[in-house]
Structures are given as C-alpha cells and as structure tokens.
Amino acid sequence: MNGLIEKDHELLLFLNGLGNSAFDPFWLTITGKWFWIPFYVILLYLFYKSFPLRKFFFILVFIAIGVTISDQLASIFKHGIQRFRPCHDELLMEKMRMVICGGNFGFYSAHASSSFFVATFVSILLGKKYKYLSIIVFVWASLVSYSRIYLGVHFPFDVVFGALVGFLLGGFLAELTKKVIYKNQLRPNS
C-alpha cells in the first residue's frame, strides 16, 4: 500500500508541476460548478427534446438522485477515510504548486464522481441519438477531473476512484431509468 501511495504522490507532483500560473485561471474556470450551467441546460434540453414529458420528468428525478448519491457518498468516504488533500499534506506542501485548497480530506473526488456520473448517464440514454455527444461528455468529465489534480486539491488516485464510482453509478441509474421509462413497451424507439 505504501508503494501505491508513493506512486500517487509522484504522479501528483509530476502532473501538478506541469502547471503554469498563466493557465491557472483556465483550470479554475473548468473546475467551477457555475461555469457549466449552460452546458447542463443544453443536456437537459436534449433530454427534453428526445423524450415525452412524463419520461423526461423521470429522467430528471434519476439525475437528481444520481448527483445526490455521488456527492454524498464522496462526503462519507472523505470523513470515513480521512486522507488529507495534497494541499494539506505536510510532505507535499512545499513541493507542489498550490493554486487553491479545499477542505481537509480528499478521498475521493466528488467532482470526478459527479461529472462521470453525468457523462455515463447521458451517454447511455442519448449517445445513440446524438453522434458525438458521448465523446463530448466524456472529454468534459475528464477535463473537470484533471482540473482537480492540476489545482492540487486531489491526488490522481482520488480522481480515478471518483471517476470509477461515477461511471458505475451512472451506468446503474441509466439502466434503471430505462427500465422505468420503457416499462410496458417492447423497446425504445431511438
């Protein structure tokens, strides 16, 4: 386990060290939740356009459930495991670029989990209808996730684990959503 933690520290220092103060505003914008509201509105519009109103309502409910579970599960892990964020780790503070810092604990990344939940959910429910949408949402999720390493608020393993949790949760809830909105039908028309 110590070897894995050491590699995680080395990878963080390498990736974080690639940063430059000229790019800090860009990555701070990428990591910000408010910046992405127009993107979320577009995704909701695509759902609205693709599904009847009743099914759209159920999709909204499952999105809200997924984002809530993703965020709260990350919070439970952070307080249960209590792994310090890199910006609070005394061994790393002087070696890394600190742009911002969050709360004390960082395992695992709620940003990575929530963004990969949304990307997976959107991809499963809309990916066949909109040709490049899956690529767009996974690139978006990857950028948001990487921003957390760049800024020094998460270790790479925190981000990878969060992305995996979001991916699995997104897949599970998207399949559950399909069962709910397509019950009493043979197959969806898309």
Provide structural commentary:
- With 190 residues, this protein is an all-alpha fold.
- The protein has one domain.
- Helices cover 67% and strands 0% of the residues.
- It has seven helices and no strands.
- Helix 3 (37-50) crosses helix 4 and helix 5 (110-126) runs antiparallel to helix 6.
- The longest helix has 29 residues, at 53-81.
- 34% of the residues are buried.
- The model has no long low-confidence stretch (mean pLDDT 91).
Runs in which pLDDT lies below 50 for 5 or more consecutive residues are none
Written as H for each helix and E for each strand, in order along the chain, the element string is HHHHHHH
* Helical coverage, percent range: 55-70%
Number of domains: 1
Fraction of residues in β-strands? under 5%
How many helices? The count is: 7
Distance between the termini: 46 Å
Structural class comes to mainly alpha
Overall pLDDT level: 91
Largest sheet: none
| Rg, Å, rounded | 18 Å
Shape: elongated
Number of strands: 0
